[in-house]
Design goal:
2 domains, 302 residues, single chain, 12 helices, alpha/beta
Amino acid sequence: MALLDRAIVRLLPAVPRPVVRRLSSRYIAGAELADAVRVVKQQNAAGKLGTIDVLGEETRDAAEARAIADEYEDVLETIERERIDANISLKPTALGLRIGRELCRENLERAIRNAAARGNFVRIEMEDATTTDDTLDLYRELRAAGDENIGVVLQASLRRTMDDVRALADLRPNVRLCKGIYIESPEIQIKDYDAVRANFVALLDALLEAGSYVGIATHDAWLVEQARTRVAGLGRDAYEFQMLLGVRPELGERIVTDSHRLRIYVPYGRQWYEYSLRRLQENPKIAGYVATDTLARLLRRN
């Protein structure tokens, strides 16, 4: 299956945009904020929380980074006006991290304080390993400045992550724990599938022991079961599960049926095509899943 997944990824750039759009429509809300609101309302009606993400990474200049920050202000205002149960997730590179660290911090602060004024929450995403130190430093600086309505992301596939958990323990951080989709060198990234799983469980144990709120972000049924045993006895407000829109929805339904909180990551934006290719290329297993799922739905329809 791994060979098939990689073959699908290599073919993606040759697939016509309308076909990619059709394939991605289940996994991306749409091009406009109204599309994300519609999808989050559907998720809320099904007993799930939402996280809205504005698509766009690696902004080219300060004006573009500030435009992304402006859009997040619109998102927060709309969440409040529409009374949907959702927070926001943003990428430091989208807010200008590679252009200038202070620009990124300025844009982050805008989003965080706007969210705080509305009683909302901001998840600072983790990107490739070249941004890890800056992202964690920014998170610690913002917490030191008194911002409490923020969380960060840690990746189980990185060898450094247990050290990061220990270094952040004094903050009792709100952490989204995921395997990580970025491809890094073997010197800094665990490549063995079972070893990544084992590290994910060890990190989850360490975070829960430290009293952190953990967003358990996985589509791996085995990891879901491991997590369920570890959160048994905890209140629903002590953790949550997290999944991507449209990925393994049947597993998500089981999580909700078993009375766990589940948050669905809902991306939208005019950069849907670039996002689709990048995410599928970064994670061939997801590409294979999307293709298999799409083919199955087409066969059922026929």
